[in-house]
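Structure ticket #2291
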Amino acid sequence: MSLNTLSGRFALLTGIFVLLAELLIVFPSISNFRLYALESRLERAQIASLALLATDESLASDLESELLENAEVFNVVLRRNDIRQLVLSSPIPGPIAATYDLREQPFWTAIHDAIVQIATPENRVIRVIGAPVKQAGQLIEITMDTATLRHDMIDYGLRMLLISAAFAIITAILLNIVAQRMLLVPIRRVINHMTAYANAPEDARSIITPTARLSELNEAEVALAAMQKTVTSALKQKARLAQLGQAVARISHDLRNILTTAQLFADRLEASEDPAVRRAAPKLVNSITRAINLCETTLAFGKAEEPSPILSRFNLAALVSEVVEAESMNSGASEDGAEVEFLTDVAPNVMIRADRDQLNRVLSNLVRNARQAIQGTRKPGTIEISGGEDDAEWWIRVGDTGPGLPAKAREFLFQPFSGGSRKGGTGLGLAIAADLVRNHGGKLELLRTDEEGTEFRLALPRELAGIQVQEPALTL
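Resolution: structure written out below.
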């Protein structure tokens, strides 16, 4: 059993904790053994003193020595009727090192005295005071050495430790068996299900069925089953969407070719001699152009991902001017009759670090959406583009005086194919713009939208986070 496994560490810790618990029992047991041994000495000394008290005469010295030797003491003092009397005596081999009164000894003091007794290897002479049995006096006092008592205490302690170790091992084994059945086996079952699920996440048969009896493990299995069902459903939906996306891409590609051919024929209608045909031709061309743009945008979004930005320094005012010029031409070509005025407020010395082509696409999408929103009202409007910088970031604001975004567009603002800001829109423009800004480590957010217009804010950080900088010559 390895200590790197849960079962191995559980068994080791169980043994250690049980052994510590047994140690807490061993020391009080040794203390009780010491007190019992001292009380036994007092009883034997009292019995030895009865010989003298019964005869009321002095004993022979050899008999007195034998009585003291059997009681394992040097002398016996008995107090009766407030008179202290040396009943039995023999030479004491040394000074008295300590006195212990067994009549009033607290629990913790007894344990401390027992530990000191074991920790002191040299033989000492001690005085022990206790109460006589059968109320045969007021107190009895003996003197004795500690060698035999210490040896008996050590022998008793070792036997207790061996018994405690045996109990600790047996307890650890039993607890480990119980832990294996109650915890480790269910955990291994969960791990096996997770491994099988990881190998085939689309296979619904690998989803775990909660069977654990313990509430905590059952909750874990229920949560795992719910997660697996969610992931499996998401993977299946993703696979279906991927197949649908491939089909849409093929359809968009073929449809774009068909519409391109139709556009060529529609251009020739403008040369028709029929006035009605000439009036209808531009609208037909615009409709076909919008359809071609939708196909191209769908194909572009269907790519795996946008390329990583190639950063360079360029003049922000020049880029904004270029975007405004392109959108102004589209605004002038519109037949909706709504005039759109472009206002810019960008300092001429602001040099920004970004991918110029991608930022052009972002701004073009924002400005085009604003222009189309204003033209949809068939009323004049204004688009304002401002930009600047501070110590943390470069920022660009694009606002318009259009009608504001509808509720559905605000709810799914940056999600593709979730409804655009105008009738017939797909929402791909904002989704692509948000992705491009995120690739720069920045953020595109909606500041406001109401009946007075809409305003977006684009922020690009000055600090780069894992983006490789490529800085060619400055672009104006």
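Closing remark: The longest helix spans residues 215-269.
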